[in-house]
Every structure is written in structure tokens, then in C-alpha cells.
Design brief:
Blueprint (H helix, E strand, L loop, with lengths): L2 E7 L5 E7 L5 E6 L19 E6 L16 H15 L4 E6 L1 H12 L4 E7 L12 H5 L7 H7 L11 H13 L2 H13 L3 H4 L6 E6 L7 H10 L4 E5 L6 H4 L1 H13 L3
Parallel strand pairs: 3-4, 3-5, 5-6, 6-7, 7-8
Antiparallel strand pairs: 1-2, 2-4
Helix pairs in contact: 1-2, 4-5
Length: 264
């Protein structure tokens, strides 16, 4: 299978690496990772997406992308995502967002609907206005961010299914590579934004995947999110926590394929 990492210079002024994998004629899928992760957080999902042309970038401030001081509002994060598609010469794609990456995907669908063929929102919030209990810890971060702190931060989102140690340690390295200002400003940019479904409409076919043991995103919010997106399908994963992508990558890939292959 064709696979390469391209360094993309975006119209927004930053450079980001992007994994490109799959047949050039296959359906395009853009993967948007969660806050403090990287494109490598999709490593366990990729084997299930062999029939797609996958684009998985590191987003601003994270992974191996540029880490400027500014540009972290939700609108700017969505603009980066649109600029990534433009740099790749992809007119429309299915956009898959994990956790806060799904919030960016929603904003992309509101601001750039012409880019969206479909949405898959994996443990994605309806709103991030409320101050999370770990915000004080993030506010107190200084450089360099320590791996031990990042490792401890994973406990904010309890795992209910086994996740390989190598995968968790790779996410620890993701977090430790981020400067403190990126940790803070990405979170603040997400929290300060008007929730996308309050600022505009989303008309793209949408699949919402949510774990019923998610201690961050309540079921009522997921039902409200589905109700605000015409025709959205909500699928609940029993006994799964917030980190759906970490816990159930094979199931996510299978449900995504079935949804995108379904008529209408």
C-alpha cells in the first residue's frame, strides 16, 4: 500500500506533516486527531481503512507541525484543516475527528461545507464551554513539559479496555513534544468558541460514535448533537470510555466503513 509523509506549507502560514496512504483513486478521508496527540494516534485505525485514500496530518502546535504562539482559536484550527485539504488538492473528503478533533471537524463542516462529503465524530463534544477539572493543571504547565506529567494526565480519561503499552507511550511522547503554550492555547481556543452547531448548520451525512461510560461527554449532549445534524446516526458503544479511538479502533473502522458504504 502506498504510504508517505508530505510536508505541507499551508496558506495559513504554517507547515504541517501529513501521512498519505492508500490508492490515489480511493475515497479520500481526512483524520483529525485529538488535543495533545498526533497523526500517529490513528496507527491502530489505519489497517481497517485500506480501501480509502487516507490523509492524517499533525495539527498546529502538535506532533511535528509548526508550533507558533498564535492561531489556536477553533475557527483558525478549522481554517488549517481546510488549508490542508487545499494543499493536498482534495476538494471533498470524509472527515473523521477524534475527541476535540471532532469539534474541529464540526467547525470545518459549518465554515467550509463544500469540503465535507461526510463526518464521523468519535467521542466528539457538543460544547466545550465548561471549564474542565484539569484546566488548572494545564494552566500551570511550564517548558519543558515532562513525560511523567503527560503519562499521569491520561488518567483524566479512564480506559476500560486494554490498550497496548506502546500506543500509550507514543501518546506520552506526543504530549511531551508540545510546548506549554500549545497545550494551553489549543484548550483555551476550543473552550472560548461558540459551539459549531450553535453558530451554523451541518448538513453532511454524519455518524456519531460514543462510549456509554464516557465521564466527560454526557449522553444527553450526544443526543443533542445528533438532533442538531440532519439525519445524523448516533451509535453507542457499551462499556467504553471517552477514548473510543484508543479502546475500539477496529470497531470504529468497521462502523465507519459500513456507514460510508450505506446507500443514501
Amino acid at each position: 500500500m502506498e504510504s508517505e509523509v508530505r510536508n505541507l506549507r499551508l496558506r495559513t502560514g504554517i507547515t504541517v506533516p501529513c501521512l498519505v496512504q492508500g490508492d490515489a483513486d480511493a475515497r479520500p478521508v481526512l483524520l483529525l486527531h485529538a488535543w495533545a496527540e498526533s497523526r500517529r494516534s490513528f496507527d491502530r485505525l489505519l489497517p481497517g481503512l485500506a480501501d480509502f485514500r487516507v490523509y492524517a496530518p499533525d495539527l498546529r502546535g502538535q506532533g511535528d507541525a509548526d508550533k507558533p504562539q498564535e492561531g489556536y482559536s477553533l475557527a483558525e484550527q478549522a481554517e488549517d484543516a481546510a488549508a490542508i485539504l487545499q494543499a493536498l488538492h482534495v476538494q471533498r473528503a470524509c472527515v473523521v475527528g477524534s475527541s476535540s478533533g471532532g469539534y474541529v471537524a464540526q467547525q470545518l463542516a459549518v465554515g467550509y461545507p463544500e469540503c465535507i462529503a461526510a463526518l464521523v465524530l468519535v467521542g466528539s463534544p457538543l460544547s466545550l464551554r465548561d471549564r474542565p477539572p484539569f484546566a488548572d493543571e494545564v494552566d500551570g504547565l511550564t517548558d519543558p513539559v515532562q513525560q511523567d506529567w503527560v503519562r499521569a494526565s491520561i488518567s483524566w480519561f479512564p480506559l476500560l479496555h486494554p490498550v497496548p503499552t506502546w500506543f500509550i507511550e507514543d501518546r506520552v511522547r506526543d504530549g511531551a513534544r508540545m510546548p506549554a503554550h500549545a497545550w494551553k492555547r489549543i484548550l483555551n481556543g476550543l473552550r472560548a468558541a461558540t459551539p459549531p452547531t450553535e453558530s451554523g448548520s451541518i448538513d453532511a451525512p454524519t455518524l456519531i460514535l460514543w462510549g456509554d461510560r464516557d465521564g466527560v461527554l454526557p449522553r444527553r449532549d450526544q443526543e443533542a448533537l445528533a438532533a442538531r445534524i440532519t439525519g445524523a446516526v448516533l451509535k453507542v458503544y457499551p462499556d467504553v470510555g471517552h477514548l473510543v479511538l484508543w479502546e475500539c479502533p477496529d470497531q470504529v473502522a468497521g462502523d465507519m466503513r459500513a456507514f460510508l458504504d450505506s446507500p443514501g
